[in-house]
Amino acid sequence: MSEEKKVPTRPLPKLTELDTAEFWRGTKDKEFRYQKCANCGTVVWHPRAHCTGCVDGDLQWHVSAGQGTIYSYSIVRLSYHPFFRGKAPFAVAYVDLDEGPRFLTNVVGVDDPGADVHIGQRVQLHWEEYEELSVPLVTPV
Ligand SMILES: [Zn+2]
């Protein structure tokens, strides 16, 4: 065993999961892909095999323009995970993309998340790049 200290990294998803692999492959090109039902028009998020509105299986992929609004958020002040420990305090937020998907993410690019993040705030995607994929974060517009 090496005595070298490993630099802590963000936990990343696997690209082999059937329902979400297409989404994560798109993040490599900084595309936030979401599904829309060809039968009833329901926007489906997170990715899955069948529509949450009508159970149809004909879901089409679309790409978000990357703009949205903070639906809700919380401030993490203490984390025991090595990657997140040094980042606290940071904001974890549910963001409603303009096309409909609501996803959980981190708000970056703010000095003080307790003062600089609020419900209803306009945000845009900010990609944290890794070798095989990118993680969709948001930053205030
Ligand atoms: Zn449907």
Report what the structure shows.
The structure is a single chain. By secondary structure, the protein is mainly β. The chain has one domain (about 20-140). Helix content is about 10%, strand content about 35%. It is built from 3 helices and 8 strands. The strands form 2 sheets. A 5-stranded antiparallel beta sheet has the order 6-5-4-7-8, with no helix packed on it. β1 and β2 (about 45) form a beta hairpin. The chain is globular, with a radius of gyration of 17 Å. The model has no long low-confidence stretch (mean pLDDT about 95). Zinc ion binds near residues 39, 40, 42, 53 and 56.
Span between termini: 46 Å
Mean pLDDT: 95
- Broad shape: globular
CA radius of gyration is 17 Å
Major beta sheet, specifics?
5 strands, antiparallel
String of helices and strands: HEEEEHEEHEE
Give the helix level as a range of percent: 10-25%
Could you say which small molecules are bound to this protein?
zinc ion
Total of helices = 3
Strand content: 35-45%
Number of domains: 1
**Strand numbers in spatial order across the main sheet:** 6-5-4-7-8
